[in-house]
Amino acid sequence: MSITVLITYTGKEQRAQEFMQEMLASGLVEKIRAQAGNERYEYFLPVDHVHSVLLIDRWTDQHALDSHHRSPMMKEIATLRKKYKLSMQVETFQHE
């Protein structure tokens, strides 16, 4: 059973987009995509919310997601989120 996590990052001005660009440029996105159980890790720019970025993050199962959450990359993501002063809205969906 796959798990999809939708995370909306929101900040002032273009801060969410700057966060996304740094995630991509730093190689963190590629490292996450290479983790066992990752099926999708993609950012999108909502047309009607210029201060936000949407992340679609899908994992094969809860174990894979839990392993990701325990990985050192989570600390790096949290550091970047604080750097850009972003808030998060998280939605989780389980599907077959």
TrEMBL record:
This is ABM domain-containing protein. It comes from Enterococcus sulfureus ATCC 49903. Residues 3-93 form the ABM domain. It comes from the Bacteria. PROSITE patterns: ABM. InterPro entries: ABM_dom, Dimeric_a/b-barrel.
